[in-house]
Amino acid sequence: MKVGLDIGGTKTAAVVLGDDGTIRRELVQPTGYGPSQVIENAVRAVEALALQTGVDRSAFTSVGIGIPGVVSVTTGRVSHAVNLGIDDLDLGNQMAQILGVPVHVENDVNAAAMGVFHLLDDPEMHSMAYLNLGTGLAAGLVLGGRLWRGSRGTAGEIGHIPIDPTGPLCACGQRGCLELVASGSGLARLWPTPSGRPMETLYAAAQGGDAVAADVFHRFAHNVASAVRILVLSVDVDVVVIGGGMSALGAPLIDSVVGVLESWAIDSPFLESLDLTSRVRLLPEGQSAAAVGAALAGLSLGEGADADSLSNNRS
């Protein structure tokens, strides 16, 4: 049995996978803030899963951890995980010493990509991009069933592709990056609201006749469609699965994105030939994709073996 932990800014999702890849047990608990609390609560989650499963924690063959921040898959170190209060933490080794089992650490979006690919279990799907619309914008790539990080770990960092050279300055130092207009932080700049569900608030305002809200929503969908187009044109994946906090709106968002893709196909025979609309899916609700992917992280260790995951925006 393998354990997977998805350590987020406020909560940690944890699963036990059997040797057949099915979820045997799962739970959600608070994450905590700061290195000691993150480790303590992660250990507590593993122990709780062992208790639920009726085994000692040493019965688990491995523990995989998906976590935001700059992650070295070769050393298990995590740095710049700002929302967790982590500057630099030797997470993998410390957890392995406490638990007595191998521990693998992966960037959270890459872990989610592996989890989504596994959960969809589509024999016709040989490659996939998981597009995460979170605070930032990034994608995890699974090619031939294996996680692809790239030669230096930056594969899928499409949020930092500039689409407007005269646009606002991005935290990466470039101007007009896609992340500034197709992410949670981008939406907060375009449509400030105290609501904890900004996408739903924006859509409700647009449906209520607010012309500004309708324009912002359309532009957001247009920019997400641009992200889909970039992924297909650059990697030619079979499927782009959209997930992350901003995707919680569900059908209205994905329908708008598909509508934009359809309008492009009308004007471009080339894009029409790519059949982009049939290659977009929404991540099903209620699936612990990142935790499942984290449990599988050890299996993908070695794909892009010299590469670290280098983005602290992938959340």
Order of strands across the widest beta sheet? Answer: 3-2-1-4-8
Overall shape: it is globular
- By secondary-structure content and strand pairing, the structural class works out as alpha/beta
Distance between the termini: 27 Å
| Topology as a string of helices (H) and strands (E) | EEEHEEEEHEHEEEHHHEHHEHH
Strand content: 15-25%
**Helix content, binned percent:** 25-40%
Number of helices: 10
What's the number of extended β-strand segments? 13
Q: Mind summarizing the main beta sheet?
A: 5 strands, mixed
What does this structure look like?
The chain has 315 residues and is an alpha/beta fold. It is built from ten helices and 13 strands. A five-stranded mixed sheet has the order 3-2-1-4-8. The radius of gyration is 19 Å and the shape is globular. The protein starts with a strand and ends in a 15-residue tail after the last helix. The relative contact order is 0.18.
Topology summary:
Blueprint: E1 2-7, E2 11-17, E3 23-30, H1 35-53, E4 62-67, E5 70-71, E6 78-81, E7 86-89, H2 91-99, E8 103-107, H3 108-120, E9 127-133, E10 137-143, E11 146-148, H4 184-190, H5 198-207, H6 211-235, E12 239-243, H7 251-267, H8 269-274, E13 280-282, H9 289-295, H10 297-300
Parallel strand pairs: 1-4, 4-8, 9-12, 12-13
Antiparallel strand pairs: 1-2, 2-3, 5-6, 6-7, 9-10, 10-11
Helix pairs in contact: 3-9, 5-6, 6-7
